[in-house]
Request: fold
Amino acid sequence: MFIVGELINGMFKDIARAIIDKNKSIVQKYAIEQIQFGADALDICLGPASKDPIVDMPWLVESIQEVTDKMLVLDSSRPKVIEAGLAVAKNPTMINSVTADQDKLEILVPLAKKFNSKLIGIAISQKGIPQNKDQRLELAAAIVSSCIEQDFSIQDLYLDPIVMPVNVAQTQILDILESIKEFKIISQPSPKTILGLSNVSQGACSRNLINRTFLTMALAFGLDAAILDPKDRDLIDAAITSELILNKQIYCDSFLDAYRKK
Amino acid sequence: MAAEMIEKWSGEVNEVLIGATKTEGGSRANVIKIGGQKTLPFLFPEAQIKNQPQIAYEVWDTAPLDWPKALSDVYGKVFSNPFAWAEKCVKEYKAQVLCLRLQSAHPESGNKTPEEAAKFVSQLLKIVDVPLIIIGCGDDPKDNLIMPAVSLAAKGERCLLGSAVQDNYKTLVASVLADGHNIIAESPIDINIAKQLNILISDMSLPLERIVINPTIGALGYGLEYAYSIMERARLAGLAGDKSVASPFICFVGQETWKTKESTITQKEMPGWGNELDRGIAWEVLTATALIQSGADIIVMRHPIAAEKIKKYISELMVG
Reply:
């Protein structure tokens, strides 16, 4: 599984303070820690703390790539903010995210192509959050067809079925899981799939247990990547073990260590 | 026409260098490189094949008792003189690498001391200048005594030393680390143990780039398909990014071939089977070709005619 660390997010107090004070060392510490815990990429989200995202995003990108060459996942709803980050990025990048709206697709897909970036397509549109599996599939198909039309490599596209909290939309969770499988058959070669994992337990109790169980199930439905807290060791252990059960990793007695050595 | 499926692999086989020249702190005339592939064997449309499979000639430090006539006809005159045996392989058969078995240290087969083994290796290093693969006598307690001495005697020559097994690897790993060699990690046709052993060895700070896997093979008719599938599975996982199994393979083809009845029973005993020499050579060649197709990087061979045929086979495949 491709692990995107979620901890560099202005929603968190440490990061919010670091963005305001322009304190590189805090951000770099979060970057290094997440990588040590197994993150393959780092999500970078300014959140409400940033007063000037066009300036703050490139600052974050530059600060982080001083300490790592891992992929940076630029997380913003504003294309201009993403572009400002891409313009200074030396590391591989991923755009988080484009919705199924034509106007957004026409801006962000060319941007991904221009900067040779991967792209997260999220199954949502201006009409709102999809209410069932069919609506999710329709939105995902719209993203895939736009990417094909614009000659963007489908193997670089990560589709997110949009995860709802289990205490808000319990009836949708199975649909979300099944969507992961269905997204894979929209095109050949298949798009990849990704989840913002923590959403599933938003506002609920026993969050770590819910996250861990949901991730295990999502992997069984073919999930390729997840944005999550890599410092949750039980969560990562569960993911590694899921890949073992699914025959994606060869068993050995030290299978957890073996995975972490990769 | 069917579309050609081109796979882009994220991983690659670890490249291992065997032998060190004078400028590198050793005294070898050449260095052999194995591994480094970014695709399955000979799949040139997918990626460049960096290094070709190598043939190692097997040399013992004492006359083997169980080698059949087909082999004693070739090596009989030099069986009692391992230095002449090694020279014959290098000069006459143009061996690029030798695989030395220190059989005479075995408690039941000479019981030579660590000092004697070390002295022998030191002398051999002066007589031939090709890279060496050195394996012990197969008795774990004795190998734990002779291999550190041998490793020290060949310090800096970047040999490939064997064999580490799951229950006995620490002594050899420590020597290999101290003296700058590579290691053979041997598992009993078991992918899970092969992976585990690589993890255990790398936990002792020996880089994965210095490990060669001996997956243990069977000759044609004796589990060849099973060994093939294990090697194929490890290679696919390695190419998909699992570094813990992305090691090159060494396969002891000669050893497995020349103990089968198909390569040893005489024509007199089995008239319908034809000439035993041709049959034995064919058995060694067929076993080697199959394993080369499944990813073997070093083939340890015995009969020079079989080795010559495999050399030709590899060079034809490498044309692409």
Remarks:
- Chain B is about 40% helix and 15% strand.
- Strands of chain B lie at 16-18, 32-34, 54-60, 98-101, 132-135, 160-164, 182-186, 211-214, 249-251, 296-301.
- Residues 66 and 259 of chain B are 8 Å apart (CA to CA).
- The mean pLDDT of chain B is 95.
